Amino acid sequence: MKPKIAIPEPCSYDADYSGRALPAYLRAVENAGGQPVVISLNLSPAEIARRITECSAILLPGSKADVDPQKWGAERHPRTAPADPLRDTADELLLQDAYNMHKPILGICYGLQSLNVWRTGTLLQHIETSVNHTPANKIEPAHEVMVECDSLLADQLEVYSHRGVIPVNSSHHQSAEQVGDGLRVVARSAKDDVIEAIEGTLPNHYVLAVQWHPERSFEHDHASRNLFRGFVDAASHWKPANP
Question: Which of 133, 172, 205, 213 is labelled catalytic?
Fold first, then answer.
């Protein structure tokens, strides 16, 4: 039986964006052998909680929104996009369930940022470096990232040198700054040190988040396919803990 993967809609206040963005996540999960379960942001918290119980893992996708800086006590940067309270609610419910039940978690772009803030981390609200993290072409590689060899990410990407360097696409103007509780940095942009991936430190709990968009490149990129296949494989092996 295919594992069910809960995926919240990307953005409640831009239906066109969500309509364009969501299908790529669904195709990537399906291609990797999973069954995506879309979580509508208009559902009540009780209904979201009910639907999560049917799922073995959660995937937090990108979004048009930015996380509200008030969540970590910061003033709003002029370039920070509007927050999305409905998406926040869905992410927080999914994350709480996943941490309670040790369900696998994969965060992508905004999903990384949402996870990090939920774990009491902070964000860099606007990246200003020599690296263009928001290029016009959001599918092809934009820059390189250095991956820590002793990480779940390296294992998923099949990167085994001391610091494997891989090319990634890019479409973000924010990134993790102070990493949240129970998380660690496992990849940084090679030229400007921007955090590009984080993962959980708790043994036997698959928690991984990347700042790039493997759902946009999984059809032609081996590393992107590996990320989704590893995540779905973890979901297929998840079992509720014995009472």
Answer: 213
* Ordered per-residue pLDDT tens for the chain, 243 residues: 999 999 999 999 999 999 999 999 999 999 999 999 999 999 999 999 999 999 999 999 999 999 999 999 999 999 999 999 999 999 999 999 999 999 999 999 999 999 999 999 999 999 999 999 999 999 999 999 999 999 999 999 987 655 689 999 999 999 999 999 999 999 999 999 999 999 999 999 999 999 999 999 999 999 999 999 999 999 999 998 754
| Cβ contact 133:127 at 8 Å | yes
Amino acid at 12: S
Q: pTM, whole model, 2 decimals?
A: 0.97
Q: Is 109 a catalytic residue?
A: yes
Which residue out of 9, 196, 199, 215 is catalytically annotated? 215
Q: Active-site residue among 9, 109, 133, 148?
A: 109
- Crossing angle of helices 85-101/45-52, nearest 10°? 40
Domains of the chain: 4-237 (3.40.50.880)
Whether 213 is catalytic: yes
Active site includes 133?
no
